[in-house]
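hiii, so i know i said id send this last week but things got crazy w the move. better late than never?? heres the sequnce for the chain we talked about at the cafe, plus the structure i predicted for it. fair warning i was half asleep when i ran it
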Amino acid sequence: MGMIIRWLLVLLCLAGLIHVGLWIAQHSGDVQMDVQGYRITTHVGVALALMACTVVAVHMLYGMVHWLLTWRSRQKQKRSVYHYEQAIHSMTSYIVALGCRDMRAAKNHSAALQRHLGKDAPLTLLLQAHLAVKQQNQAEMAQAFEALQAHPSTAMLAHHQLSVLAYQQGDAQRAMHLARQAYDAQPHLYDVVKHYIGMCLAHGDKQAAQRALLHATRHHVFDAQEAGHMRAMLALFIYRTEGDHVALNHAFMHDMRFAPAFTYLDRVMEQGNPRKAWKLVTKAWKTQPHALLAERVVRFSVQEKPEQRMKRAQSLYNMHPHHLESQLLMAHMACDLGKWEFADMYVRAAEHYAPQQRVVALRHALVRHGYGEAWSSIIMPDPAWHCDACGTIHEAWESHCNHCHSFDRMIWGVPQPKADDMMPMVW
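okay and structure toks below
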């Protein structure tokens, strides 16, 4: 449609010029000019033609002069466009090389990007830092992040990563200082806020951690479940440092999935309130079955009658009948009560879900009573506390990993071998 309109305008202009030419031809006249004592007489059409030629000549001369004056800037722009295109190509090749785990090619493409953008460009420094992270070269990581601090667009990221490095190297004071700088620059970024809260807890500054958590909750940095988990961690920290049992209650109530807070159930039982303890166990199990919770169920029910013990276990089983922990709970209860046939049924179901060492131990106990056969295939390890970042196994839950010092990466489950991502993330 735009092309049609442009052609219509051209035709209208051409028709107007033809009309003016015909009018001049029909109304002929002369034009006289006195130049330096000479009188020049010419036709009106000739005068108009000379004026038009003069205008065209001036326009062409202006264009030529402008082209000559802007020649250097145009060459510079062409070079910039060329380097930009080559930089995009180098960055794309760098990502592909990382996806294929070809670190040598990735390093070459990073060097090519540096040649096209300059060694101090933020994007060049980001890729250098990223490559150093992939290679676990802390010296190059620190050097790249130190350089990134000079750029306003990357200063926050540099503060955050340098804080993590400083804490891993044992420099807690510098780690806290850098974490505060990153938090002040970007108080609404998930990783920055969580790392800052972890640093506050590591330094025993619960007031700063509470303020940061409240601010993050108000601005929806954490969703409801994550916010409850962080409150539970903070309450457990207060209990461990100050011995405040009310805080332990809050830790359990904020997040019933948070296994370290199950200690509150032991305290309730010690206070001689089994009815309240069983009520809390039921609420926690309904939220999510857990091996540590199942241990407490077995321990709490020792003093009860066999029928009452099995009834409680059955009520928990009915909440999550297809969960591994439900199968194991019923198997343990049946074994304790000598109901080997029922125990064999639940162990078979557990073997189908996950052939872990604790399942195999139950199977051997049943074999000794004449039920089933011993398990001879490869078995899985039992669940344990391990760091989701580095895979280090811990005997008990800790807020910070003792190996890589990551905050809130301790999870309960079967440890899996760590592997690099197929396609790399920024960090």
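btw Strands lie at 30-35, 38-43, 384-387, 393-394, 410-413. thought thatd interest u
miss u guys!!
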